[in-house]
Amino acid sequence: MEKIPYKIYLSEDEMPKSWYNVKAVMKELPDPFLHPGTLQPMTADELKPIFCDELVDQEMNTKDEFIPIPEGVTDYYRMYRPSPLVRAYNLEKQLGTPAKIYFKFEGNNTSGSHKLNSAAAQVYYAKQQGIESLTTETGAGQWGSALSMACAYYGVPLDVFMVKISSEQKPYRKVLMETYGAKVHASPSTETAVGRRILEENPGTGGSLGCAISEALETAMSRKNCRYVLGSVLDHVILHQTVIGLETQTACEKYGIKPDVIIGCVGGGSNFGGLIAPFMGGRIKGENSIEFVGIEPASCPSLTRGRYAYDFGDTGKMTPLIRMYTLGSGFMPSPNHAGGLRYHGMSPIISKLFHDGYITARSVEQSKVFDVASIFAKCEGILPAPESSHAIYGAVEEALKCKETGEEKTILFGLTGTGYFDMTAYMNYNSGNMVDHIPTDEDLEKGFATIPDIGK
Amino acid sequence: MEKIPYKIYLSEDEMPKSWYNVKAVMKELPDPFLHPGTLQPMTADELKPIFCDELVDQEMNTKDEFIPIPEGVTDYYRMYRPSPLVRAYNLEKQLGTPAKIYFKFEGNNTSGSHKLNSAAAQVYYAKQQGIESLTTETGAGQWGSALSMACAYYGVPLDVFMVKISSEQKPYRKVLMETYGAKVHASPSTETAVGRRILEENPGTGGSLGCAISEALETAMSRKNCRYVLGSVLDHVILHQTVIGLETQTACEKYGIKPDVIIGCVGGGSNFGGLIAPFMGGRIKGENSIEFVGIEPASCPSLTRGRYAYDFGDTGKMTPLIRMYTLGSGFMPSPNHAGGLRYHGMSPIISKLFHDGYITARSVEQSKVFDVASIFAKCEGILPAPESSHAIYGAVEEALKCKETGEEKTILFGLTGTGYFDMTAYMNYNSGNMVDHIPTDEDLEKGFATIPDIGK
Fold first, then answer.
1. Across residues B26-47, what is the average pLDDT?
2. Ramachandran region of residue B112, left (φ > 0), alpha (ψ -120 to 50) or beta?
3. pLDDT for B161-195, tens place per residue?
4. Residue A110 distance to chain B (closest CA, Å)
5. Where does the Tryptophan synthase beta chain-like PALP domain lie (chains A, B) (predicted)?
6. Which of A237, A390, B18, B420 could cross-link with A420 by S-S, CB 3.0 to 4.6 Å?
């Protein structure tokens, strides 16, 4: 066994050659997408006008545990991967915990997050298929930045619908996307029918991921040879993100690290899903007994306070019906600096695993998240994104429990990104003006009322 | 010989154990600092009220080729080093050049640049000496960010004087420094006598590094047990930055890479000095014949249009007299987005090596710099800082020459940092509003008139 360095960098030869498809080993599968008109399971042919063919095939694949990564995607991955697995020695010292804390750091690329892992794959497949333009939505701006980078590299034009409140909180995200050649629209915009309708009903709205998705979908479907791409939630996105978990697994095996608990932040679920998938596969097969914990914002608590139901993925009700934990597609999350976690729904894979007891979840208020973000920044030298800081919070909670009990647990969490474009949030926190928004039961009931009643 | 990967990461064991002191092998040394009153060489005792003792000793050291890096500094380095040496395959393809292009990337840390290498060392020594607070200046904000991070880690309070124009162009830099606990003042400020004087003489000024240095110096000298730290120019800063060149050298030796030309951007000279120092040592000893090229902004051309003379390091004429290439301490560089390169002077080591013909220099307008920055961002997936992009420009020029001649040169450049906090500059460039400022001969004469006439 090699000596454990501060940061574990795998060699390029050790990078995964395939993604990991956890559905191939799940005992029960997530329920299929339903067509909102017929309530029948969607077929691949029905999905292919929206998504690229290869991505639909990946979405539907329930039998191959490993799906090869094309060389054209690996070429892109090599520009910023493998990412380091870091031992948080300083954080351990700061907390005085006997626990060992590791984090897989996905922020060392210009998009600032893990999102590039799926962006590169999706744009690669679009290019291969001869697609002439793409549309997408972005919340915090990390997905939009990542997709802009991938589109610039592979040469595919891109329109980004950016959640309005985020575009105001993060003006420089827009400039970054534009520097990479993307066209950026604040959502809701007046450029789509659904955007105009939402603006009419709710003129002062700061928008939401669900609403931006509707706008991007409408645009993609109204254009010739254009497709829509999504940065989270869907199974194929989680598939691409498993490059995170697979690298982590290789590093753990190489250095004899055995995590007791793996923690991630959950918004749509892609980073958490990608991080845990291969370990989850092992747990389902009885090879480990790792505990998996998702941390979500108290302002948008889909797992901890949502319902497991068929719902639309977007506010405009244009997507297939998806069985997932949801607050209702009409739920408008209150302002929160972790824009990437402001989504009413949740990945169907994560939802199913949570429902079946393989995953637990906790929620936390943003002011507490920034408390640990600030400590982490100072002692580990990395300024974390607000989203990622939810995972830090979970790890700190766990490490402090170990301090009480004396347990020497191995805690591993996903540090999905950096906060360089979140300085407004840090400014807000530094000045002591940060407010926590927790929806009341009444707020939630209003959201739940928008979940379609389809008798399931 | 191992196969050359896309990114070369050394192991932690391969990290340098010592810094490299090029003065120990230089055939002629830079001239000594002079006391502005007596015009006699400054002694260590005269410098120690301003700088930490150990740093003064390093500044004066002309005999030890290697100076050990303390374990307390290595602990910090391990959080973000070793940095990768990257083969710019995509840039080569984009340019259609037969040249091989490598860059040493120093941007993968929260401060966003190489500055952390000296910040960690300087704060470590201050803490060891029992210093109770530090002051500094910052131009682009990279040095201020780096020093704030190091001060947070080692636990030393910090005041930063930030060039006013930069603090306006980069508001989030200030928030970043504050997140790390620093106090930030826009310079010229009304908090120092020299700041008030400069404001009186030139009320609309955007400030300059030279002016911010005066303010930080005055503050340090007026406080008990406080020292001033500088992020560039001085020999001990270049010494700390040689960790860049030493890692590069180890990686080159490990993979059989033999650079024909090494290129860096030059402002105060610390990154370029640190990158080239060990290679320069080899060249002086006759072990290689590498060409060393510094690239500076046309708006602040100290090497290409300045004079080699004794001058003050700051606008307020508080520093010792330093023999260097200078535009005169009264030269006010016009606005330019590469704030880190807006300095009237130049490292005495770089100045001497340039004067003796070991280094060549070229200048370039910022609009051309952003042209290549934009290409580089798209094909290499890293958004470069405006400062660093000067080096990219130099490398591209060199690679295009190779395209003409068919030469397969190996070009290596320093990519000192990322542009995440320079989005105003990119916005300006994207919108087509970027203006180039080149000082006229008359402008330069005005600056030269402020160089003290001491008969040398």
1. 96
2. left
3. 999 988 887 889 999 999 999 999 999 999 999 99
4. 5
5. 80-417
6. B420
Tokens 């292009």 appear where?
Answer: B101
Mutation for B interface: A378, A421, A424, A431, most B CBs within 10 A: A378
For the residues of A156-186, what is the DSSP string, one character each? --EEEEEEHHHHHH-HHHHHHHHHTT-EEEE
Using CB atoms, which residue from B5, B112, B153 is nearest to A12? B5
Reported as a single tens digit per residue, the pLDDT across A307-358 is 999 999 988 898 999 999 999 999 988 777 887 888 899 999 999 999 999 9
B225 touches chain A (CB under 8 A): no
Report the C-alpha gap between B337 and A301 in whole angstroms: 43
Residue in the structure block whose two tokens are 């990154």 = B271
Count of pairs with CB atoms under 8 A, one residue in A, one in B: 112
Q: Which residues of A touch B157 (CB under 8 A)?
A: none
Read off the amino acid at residue A433.
Answer: N
Q: Is the pLDDT of residue B235 over 90?
A: yes
Q: Is A175 on the interface with B (CB under 8 A)?
A: yes
Q: What is the dihedral of CA B225, B231, B234, B238, to 10 degrees?
A: 120
B180 close contact with A: CB closer than 8 A: yes
Would the CB atoms of A172 and B172 count as touching at under 8 Å? Answer: yes
Whether residue A329 contacts residue A317, with contact meaning beta carbons closer than 8 Å, is answered with: yes
pLDDT of residue A332: 82
Residue owning tokens 């610390």: B270
Distance CA B83, CA B104 (A): 7
What's the confidence (pLDDT) of residue A456? 58
pTM: 0.95
Maximum distance among all Cα pairs of chain A, rounded to whole angstroms: 63
Furthest C-alpha separation in chain B: 63
Q: What is the pLDDT of residue A334?
A: 79
Task: Among A179, A376, A388, pick the best mutation site for testing chain B contact (most B Cβ within 10 A).
Answer: A179
Min Cα distance A384 → chain B (Å) is 9
pLDDT above 60: residue A122:
yes
Task: Mutate one of B169, B177, B383 to test the A interface: name it (highest A CB count within 10 A).
Answer: B383
Residue among B195, B208, B189, B188 nearest B339 (CA): B208
d(CA A129, CA A217): 19
Q: Is the pLDDT of residue B456 over 70?
A: no
Local confidence band at B2 (pLDDT 50, 70, 90 cut-offs): low
Which distant-in-sequence residues (6+ apart) come within 8 Å of A412 by Cβ? A101, A102, A103, A104, A248, A252, A257, A259, A261, A262, A263
Are the beta carbons of B426 and A90 separated by less than 8 Å? no
Q: Return the pLDDT at A210.
A: 80
Predicted confidence (pLDDT) per residue in B431-442, tens digit: 999 999 999 999
Give the nearest partner residue to B180 out of A6, A80, A378, using CB atoms: A378
Q: CA of A14: which chain B residue's CA is closest?
A: B5
Name which of A114, A6, A5, A99 is nearest A395 in CA terms: A99
Structural domains for chain A = 7-14+68-112+234-448 (3.40.50.1100)
